[in-house]
Each structure stands twice: as structure tokens, then as C-alpha cells.
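Fold it.
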Amino acid sequence: MSPPLPLLAALLLGPLAALHAADAPKQKPNILFIAIDDLRTSLGCYGDPLAKSPNIDRLARQGLIFQRAYCHQAVCGPSRASLLTGRLPDSTRVWHNRNLFRSAIPDLVTLPQLFKNNGWTALSLGKIFSGDERELDPPSWSAPEVLRGEGPGWKNYALAGAKASGKGAAHEAADVPDEGYPDGGLARLAVEALEQLAPKKEPFFLAVGFFKPHLPFCAPKKYWDLYDPAVFEPRGGETRVEGAPEIAYHTHRELGGYKGIPEDEQVSAEQARALCHGYHACVSYVDAQVGKVMDALHRLGLDGNTIVVLWGDHGWSLGEKNRWCKGTNFDRDARAPMMIRAPGVTKPGTSTEALIEYVDVYPTLAELAGLTPIGSLDGRSLVPILKDPAARGCDVALSQFTRQWKPGGVKFMG
């Protein structure tokens, strides 16, 4: 069971802070590290005409937005492992959500661990390495990771009689406040953590991992009401990607099996419309929570010395070419949003077409903070691009995916 925030507060006030206070140089940058689960580029700042995402769009205007950022495997665990270790999946052997990078490289120093080892208070709230307690990584953090809080509002479903666990309805629009679903509570925990960290002399690495818009598409009704359902064109029955071999498609059915959804994911036009509506409602819900955290950063006077990184762990398909969810090497799944706001480095309101990979984030944040990574990394620093958005990115971005999709069942690698 993850500890409640008061325990985090006690740890922050304890010997760890005193240990690093004497040798911590002034003005080490803080890091606010925001991960959003299953977020594709359905954002206003990426040109989506339907998305209502004013807070993330505001953050994008404050820094640099990457138009061509690619994860290394379009599924949660492997994508996050590569970004947080700076190593490709074939190095860590994390090809599945149940794989652990420390099984392959026990002494690997992760991105937050590098900061923790050099005097930063490193905290994790929500889904960062994983949404599963079996895949958490205690060595990376100054205090135990808080995956979810306790009490009401921390379940996938809010309506009375909804399924407590597993696959229930594919979407829900309960008339509840933001904290009626987990991401509202998570935003509150993040704001409380910032309030506790603000008066400290030590810099911080605060990771906040929002759960939506991951299935099921559950968000307070007011975010559904932001959209006219008629704007979502029905999808389904589209032709498959021309020339793509059968093995390019996934066979595991993440959407299939939710209440009312066929196992083969061949949804009706009305179901497709509702799913697209629900996805966008969840994006707007998460956007509002990001806004709360960014507002707290400003209110506490921390924004002038805090690097903010916001990223989605991979893309997502909403019925395009008869495909739902992720799990392929198609561009729709492998490309994801990423933006970096680095005071004094990035120019507000800039965008780059430079091709980048998720393993590039680790060396980038290390360089911005003046830290030297331990061991070899597979990426390269993006600082030249942060300074000059016209600078060249990498020549090739590597995304891969296994077939078959089982913890120990790799037969082919795409």
C-alpha cells in the first residue's frame, strides 16, 4: 500500500533534507515531470481542432513543443522504462509491462535516481514507472512512491453499482467534482507536495503521472459537456493500412471486452462516436488538473527556477484505419506529445520539427541540471534543440514491438 501524503511530508522534513542542505549549491533547477497516460497529440497546441486543452496549450506557449517525438514501444511499461532509464528496450529487456529493467541491469541509475543521488528530493505521485505496484522502483525516489490515494474518488468508476475492478463500462460521465475520479485527487496531492517543497533549500524532482485518458474513459460530466457529440464523426469499417502485413497489427484487445464492446473491437458507428467523445472529455479533464499544478507552481514562486517536462507515454488510435488503442509501430501509436519549458534556455512559444526519441530526455535533463549520468545512455541531449529549435534532431527514431504480446512470449520483434 502506498503511503499517504502526510507520511511524505514527514519524510521531507526528516534527515534526508538535512543531509543535502549543507552541500546543495544555490539555484539548482527544480524539475516538474508530468506524465500523461495514453495521451496522443489530441491537443490544441498540436493542431487538433476539436480538443479543448487550454492549460496544456498555455504550457506549450511557455516553452518548446516537439512535433516529432517518438516512444520506443507503444505501451505503458516499456515506453516509460526507456524514458526513465535512457536505455533502449533491447538494453533493459523491458518488452512487456511485467518486465523489470533491474532484472537485466540491477545497478542501473534511473533519471530520478540520478537527481536523488545528487541532492534533489525526488518524489513520485501517480503513474510514473507503472500503474502496477509490482513494477515500482524504490531506489529511484527519496520516499515511497504514492501510486493512488485512499478513500473515495480513487476508483476507475464513480457511479453507484459500477464494476469495482476489471473491465466495466468503456466510458462514464458521473456528475461529480474533479476529485470524484483519481486524477482530481492526484492533482490535489501534487499541489500539496509543491507547497511542502517550496520552502525547502533543496531542489526537487517531482514526478506527477496522470491516469487519463487511459481506458475506461471516465471523467466528470462537465468535461463531457464541453463537447457537442455531433462533432465526433463515427469511425469503424475503415480500410486497413495499405500494404501493412498482418503481423503489424496487434492481436490483444485492450478495448474489447468492456461492457457492450465486442471482443473483436468492431464497434458500431454510435459506439465509436461515444468513445471518441469520452477520450476527448478525459483529455480536457486531465488538462484541468495540469492547470491546477501549474497554477500552484506560479503561486508559490517556483516557476522561475523549475524545468517543466510534459509528455504522453505513447500515442493512441481512435478507430483510424479500423484500429483502436496502441500496441503497434504505426505512427499514430508511436508518436506522442512532448514539451519542455526550461527558464533561461527555451524561448517561449517555440516549436521544432526535429526528430527525437524518448531516450533523449534523460541526458537532456541531466545536462540542464549540470549532472553527469552514471553509465552509458542510448540517447543524446536535446539542449541544442532547446536553444535553437531549427537544430537537427536524430536521423532515425526507433520504435519496436513484440509479437506475441505475452510477458515471456517474444517470438518476433518488429
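The longest strand covers residues 350-357.
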